[in-house]
Amino acid sequence: MSEATSEQQAEQRHQIESTISRLFAPEDAGLQGALQAARDAGLPEIQINPIQGKLLQVLATACQARKILEIGSLAGYSGIWLARALPTDGHLITLEINPEHAEVVRASFANAGVGDRTEVRVGAALDLLPTLTTEGPFDLIFIDADKASYPQYLDWAIKLSRAGSIIIADNCVRDGVAFQQTATMDADTIGLVQYNQLTREDPRLTTIVLANDNDYTDGLNIAVVKAH
Ligand SMILES: C[S@@+](CC[C@H](N)C(=O)[O-])C[C@H]1O[C@@H](n2cnc3c(N)ncnc32)[C@H](O)[C@@H]1O
């Protein structure tokens, strides 16, 4: 029997990922509504994928999250996955620099039935993070905004967390460039490379990066805070 070509292997991986997505991470009307609202508003389609969304829920449930902080809301897709892991008196704060994105997020949260436990704060995350010190600690922090600021976001995430909190950052693979020091890196890549290095070396964290198996998304850096 002839061996599968790399195209056949890629197709097989895609089929398996689609099956996992369909069985374990189906999108309901609220999630699909957020995607449609993003398209209608002309927002870029750069949200996490359904398997990552379900993984965020699994992690939020594992740390019994009551308070979640997100940096980078876009249209609210990842926020909906996260908010649905909260108890009814739980709270998600999401930070978004673009006021037009924030309007879409608020409408999508309401449409998905999580408007009561979510709050969108508009501004540059590095300006907003210092205002959150009295509202923490946050049980889960999801970082998914401008990549150049990731190292500073990590500092804030640790400050705003407790032992047992989970800090997750998106785009920490980028076809492998997020692990390589090179002379020609742009500011985003420098931020990602430093973020991976900092989370790997910080004795307060236990960290892993999970790469997705397809070619149109990326990978999550997942760190658990052991102690401060
Ligand atoms: C990749 S998207 C977020 C995707 C979203 N987490 C999801 O998966 O559904 C990044 C978002 O971060 C926002 N953003 C970029 N720089 C920011 C900053 N300095 N502070 C706050 N938000 C920022 C962008 O406007 C954009 O909406």
TrEMBL record:
Alphabetical keyword list: Methyltransferase, S-adenosyl-L-methionine, Transferase
One of the GO biological process terms: methylation
InterPro entries registered for this protein in UniProt: Cation-dep_OMT, SAM-dependent_MTases_sf, SAM_O-MeTrfase
The keyword Methyltransferase appears for this protein: yes
Transmembrane segments: none
Any Pfam family hit: Methyltransf_3
UniProt cross-references to Gene3D superfamilies, sorted A to Z: Vaccinia Virus protein VP39 (3.40.50.150)
GO molecular function: O-methyltransferase activity; S-adenosylmethionine-dependent methyltransferase activity
PANTHER family recorded: CAFFEOYL-COA O-METHYLTRANSFERASE 3-RELATED, O-METHYLTRANSFERASE-RELATED
Protein name: O-methyltransferase
Source species: Dictyobacter vulcani
